[in-house]
Specification:
This protein has 14 helices and 14 strands. The protein is α/β, with parallel strands linked by helices. The strands form three sheets. Strands 4-10-9-8-7-5-6 form a seven-stranded mixed β-sheet, sandwiched between helices. A hairpin with a 2-residue loop joins strand 2 and strand 3. Helix 12 runs parallel beside helix 14. The site of pyridoxal-5'-phosphate (PLP) has 13 residues, from helix 5.
């Protein structure tokens, strides 16, 4: 039998050869958009803490108080003794934010998808997923045992064609999309997808991980507390019947320990701030629009803007160059994005300063990266 270490070294070498080897770099996040790497202070355009809420004094205060009151860990799954009273408060706030009857909080966004999708569909059912859907929805779809088909990104005609050809051979059908696509920053035509779902007797599930509290028309509205809310956890919002069912049937909820109470308290404080300060919630998109207008790119649809450099090496070199100039912008490569679409991915925070956005746009122009 070959030694495990030999096999994994071979597998790693293959990834390295393809330019797909990843590495973890210690990065100390400070207040706002500051990050320290290798002793160097950088302005980050690579963080999903869109509103800076992870460091908001009220969030920290609420989390500290919960830590002192309830301790560091939840002690058990939510169905055993881990259902801290803070869950009700958080779920009520989420349902209110999304305009649904109820909500269910999971350990993370990944766990929300992994638990929800296989609870809703299985063998004999159909899943139609946008080509650019996040890896965790794909993992969940595979785990479910349903037939998985992908429609071309945001392509309603293709989705309709697949429905017409395949829907009748399956019992239930779930259509999966993201409200805001994580690597491209564009938005799904949610209303039109819902109409297709309705017309074909299918359900729509949206992943709003990168949305800033966006309501969708889907009957299953998934999202995360780990990005704009600056905390940690995932959720599904929907009807009371759906949520009741998930609390029994979603295995990632039933068989995993509840979130630490301090994390729930942080999320509650963050959602309250988002509710009270709609202008703060708007700010990342305003910054992204300023950036796209400086560069003559199509108007930003969200806080995420990709600058596509195609080749992996180019994206890596560009990211390294920006780092030398004091900016942290990650290079995103396949398999996270399609082959030959390696890119710099900019995410804008409410806390970016206009001068930083202008400086980084000036570097892109100076280097001629848009002409790639
Ligand atoms: C980040 C992300 C998730 C996972 O959420 P976590 O809370 O980080 O586990 C799910 N879907 C999309 C589209 C994401 O970007």
């Amino acid at each position: 039998m070959p030694a495990l270490d030999d096999i994994v070294r071979q597998k790693t070498a293959i990834l390295e050869h393809r330019g797909q080897k990843r590495s973890l770099v210690p990065s100390e996040r400070g207040v706002g958009v500051r990050v320290e790497r290798g002793g160097k202070a950088l302005i980050s355009f690579s963080c999903n803490d869109y509103l800076g809420l992870s460091h908001h004094p009220e969030v920290i205060k609420a989390a500290s108080a919960a830590l002192a009151q309830y301790g560091a860990g939840a002690g058990a799954s939510r169905l055993v003794t881990g259902n801290c009273p803070l869950y009700d408060e958080l779920e009520n706030l989420l349902a209110e934010q999304k305009g649904t009857e109820a909500a269910c909080v999971f350990g993370s966004g990944y766990l929300a998808n992994i638990g929800t999708i296989p609870a809703l569909v299985g063998a004999g059912d159909l899943i139609l997923a946008d080509k650019y859907i996040h890896a965790c929805m794909i993992d969940a779809a595979r785990l479910s045992g349903a037939t998985l088909m992908r429609f071309a990104h945001n392509n309603l005609d293709h989705c309709k064609m697949l429905l017409e050809a395949n829907r009748h051979e399956h019992q239930n059908c779930l259509i999966l999309t993201e409200t805001v696509f994580s690597m491209d920053g564009d938005r799904a035509p949610v209303r039109a997808l819902k109409a297709l779902a309705n017309a074909s007797g299918s359900w729509l599930m949206t992943d709003d991980a990168h949305g800033l509290a966006t309501e969708s028309l889907a009957e299953v509205q998934m999202g995360t507390l780990s990005k704009a809310a600056g905390s940690y956890g995932g959720y599904v919002c929907g009807s009371k019947a759906l949520i009741d069912y998930l609390k029994t049937a979603a295995r990632s909820l039933v068989y995993s320990t509840a979130l630490p109470p301090a994390t729930l308290a942080a999320s509650i404080a963050a959602l309250r701030i988002m509710k009270a300060q709609p202008e703060l919630v708007q700010q990342p998109l305003q910054h992204a629009k300023h950036f796209t207008s400086l560069l003559g790119l199509p108007v930003a649809q969200s806080a995420i803007v990709p600058v596509i450099l195609k080749e992996n090496d180019k994206a890596l070199a560009a990211s390294k160059y920006l780092e030398e100039r004091g900016f942290l912008v990650s290079a995103i490569r396949p398999p996270t994005v399609p082959e030959n679409t390696a890119r710099l991915r900019f995410t804008f925070s409410a806390l970016h300063e206009t001068k930083d956005i202008e400086a980084v746009a000036a570097i892109i122009k100076e280097r001629g990266w848009l002409a790639q």
